[in-house]
């Protein structure tokens, strides 16, 4: 029996708190002006994408007390932007990254329930933890939590939020003949949640929203993160965009679902992916090279180098060889808890791997950093990129992709204009929306139904 053809899920990531944006490109626009968000969102909706993803940045990235040279200035409040976008879009899902380390369940649940109402059932929450001390300094708790503590709090946070979302029932709302809705005298919105992290009780003041609960996304790649996603998420972001790595991640995470009584199709795997398009594959490759040079400036290359070496390398020549000294092993004092540092469990081994590669390929420090931090997933003509995407999805390396253009806000336009039609011709991507809620776009089961209004 032949394998059924999978439908591809596509989303658009408005870049900002990352090193993919090339703000120096003459076509790059503002990351604060609402017209940028409007253009980006409406382009994604024109392409029939599932959702727009807006990352949250609670503080500009910095290292050694200085802002990264490639960070765009500012990041408006996530809920404010998504609520405004709900008014200028009709079907596009609206996904926001909101962390569980420095917020409280009641306020976040109230904001997402409100967004789900305002958008007609298009809200989604990317549940993340905050891992760096710089961000922690902005909040009363300060510092950063160890990985196991962060995920324990996140799981408790989400469970508390679900208690709030589920605190309203259909028999607690009375509809009059003119369509108005009034509270009954029952226990509408009454809730109580208590564990080692939270002790809250009261009444939740936002009625049940169109989706019941927002779609839940998770972005962790650690074992804790994968288990959290298998237990509680509707979709998981991934950084594994190649066939071999993608298939391994896909099989691992999907394989964890049965332990929680969940089916294979109840969790989507959606890697983030960059793309560079050209009239030919060769032209796209040339453009991609120039983009990488712009994304990894000499100063940025040194910042990446310091994160592994755990020492001040501001005097190091980015156009020279890698440092001859070894990384400092132990507590990282350069990045203070940044995830990129903790990815390297054995800094000296990684440094030696980098040295061997640099010597074999005759690479300078900056050239080596460009290679090891590369995130260009799809490079080629529209036909080539459409083929690459479809192959990865059909071969179970992913269920789709969250596209991250390097130019904002118009960087998504070429993809929508040239690649999407080719996917539609193949019959692997929708020609139009068939549902109104994000859960419907993603093929997910609705949240448990409540009794009807009376």
Automatic annotation (TrEMBL):
InterPro entries registered for this protein in UniProt:
Diverse_substr_monoxygenases, Luciferase-like_dom, Luciferase-like_sf, NTA_MOA
Q: Does the keyword Oxidoreductase apply?
A: yes
- Domain spans labelled Luciferase-like: 23-394
Question: Per its UniProt record, what CDD domains does this chain match?
Answer: Nitrilotriacetate_monoxgenase (cd01095)
Please tell me where FMN binds in this chain.
97, 151, 222
GO terms for MF? monooxygenase activity; oxidoreductase activity, acting on paired donors, with incorporation or reduction of molecular oxygen
Alphabetized UniProt keyword annotations: Flavoprotein, FMN, Monooxygenase, Oxidoreductase
Q: Which residues form a coiled coil?
A: none
Q: Which Pfam families match?
A: Bac_luciferase (PF00296)
NCBIfam families xrefs: FMN_nitrolo
Q: Which family does it belong to?
A: Belongs to the NtaA/SnaA/DszA monooxygenase family.
Q: What is the protein name given in its UniProt record?
A: F420-dependent methylene-tetrahydromethanopterin reductase
């Amino acid at each position: 029996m032949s394998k059924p053809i999978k439908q591809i899920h596509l989303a658009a990531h408005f870049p900002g708190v990352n090193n993919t944006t090339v703000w120096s490109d003459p076509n790059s626009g503002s990351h604060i002006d609402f017209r940028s968000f409007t253009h980006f969102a409406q382009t994604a909706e024109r392409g029939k994408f599932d959702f727009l993803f807006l990352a949250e940045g609670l503080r500009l990235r910095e290292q050694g007390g200085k802002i990264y040279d490639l960070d765009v200035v500012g990041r408006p409040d996530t809920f404010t932007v998504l609520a405004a976008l709900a008014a200028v879009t009709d079907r596009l899902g609206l996904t926001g990254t909101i962390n569980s380390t420095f917020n409280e369940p009641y306020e976040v649940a109230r904001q997402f329930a409100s967004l789900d109402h305002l958008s007609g059932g298009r809200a989604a929450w990317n549940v993340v933890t905050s891992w760096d001390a710089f961000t922690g300094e902005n909040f009363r708790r300060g510092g950063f939590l160890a990985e196991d503590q962060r995920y324990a709090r996140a799981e408790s946070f989400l469970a508390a939020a679900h208690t709030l979302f589920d605190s309203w029932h259909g028999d607690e709302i009375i509809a009059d003949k003119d369509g108005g809705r009034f509270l009954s005298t029952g226990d509408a919105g009454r809730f109580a949640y208590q564990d080692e992290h939270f002790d809250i009780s009261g009444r939740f003041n936002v009625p049940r929203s169109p989706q019941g609960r927002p779609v839940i996304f998770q972005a962790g790649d650690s074992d804790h993160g994968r288990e959290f996603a298998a237990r509680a998420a509707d979709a998981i972001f991934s950084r594994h965009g190649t066939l071999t790595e993608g298939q391994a991640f896909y099989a691992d995470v999907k394989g964890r679902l049965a332990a929680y009584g969940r089916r294979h199709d109840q969790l989507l795997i959606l890697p983030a992916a960059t793309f560079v398009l050209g009239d030919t594959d060769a032209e796209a490759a040339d453009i991609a090279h120039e983009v990488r040079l712009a994304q990894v400036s000499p100063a940025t290359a040194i910042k990446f180098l310091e994160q592994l070496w755990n020492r001040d390398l501001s005097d190091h020549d980015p156009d020279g060889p890698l440092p001859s000294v070894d990384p400092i092993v132990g507590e990282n004092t350069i990045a203070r808890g940044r995830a990129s540092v903790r990815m390297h469990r054995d800094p000296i081994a990684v440094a030696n791997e980098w040295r061997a590669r640099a010597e074999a390929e005759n690479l300078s420090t900056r050239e080596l950093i460009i290679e090891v931090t590369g995130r260009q997933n799809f490079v080629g003509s529209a036909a080539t990129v459409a083929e690459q995407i479809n192959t990865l999805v059909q071969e179970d390396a992913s269920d789709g992709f969250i596209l991250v253009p390097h130019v904002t806000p118009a960087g998504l336009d070429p993809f929508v204009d040239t690649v999407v039609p080719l996917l539609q011709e193949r019959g692997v991507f929708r020609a139009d929306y068939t549902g109104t809620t994000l859960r419907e776009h993603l093929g997910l089961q609705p949240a448990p139904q409540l009794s009807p209004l009376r």
